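Table S2 (continued). Query chain:
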Amino acid sequence: PRTTPRTKPRTTPRTKERTTPRTKERTTPKTKPRTTPRTKERTTPRTKERTTPRTKERTTPRTNQELHQELSQELHQELKKELNQELHQKLKKELHQELKKELHQEPKKELHQE
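Corresponding output:
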């Protein structure tokens, strides 16, 4: 094994401190402005009207596991909805109180000047 390093340690940094920015300020935009809109106006709907149902009619009854899964999904959705509503109400209330406070703290002189 070597006892001395292959290269002598650097005395100066690898890169010099920049005095000018790496890129020049642009005078012209990078892209030419569009003359045509990005999307064409649609004449036909994006999806075709369905003639067949999305799911095939079941021949076998659902298993307990499937039923359980469906029910728990429904329950989850409902709970989520309720929680969101509660949260929304709470936040609305808080915001309202904060706004009320701020309104009362403002000097009354400013209101009369208008």
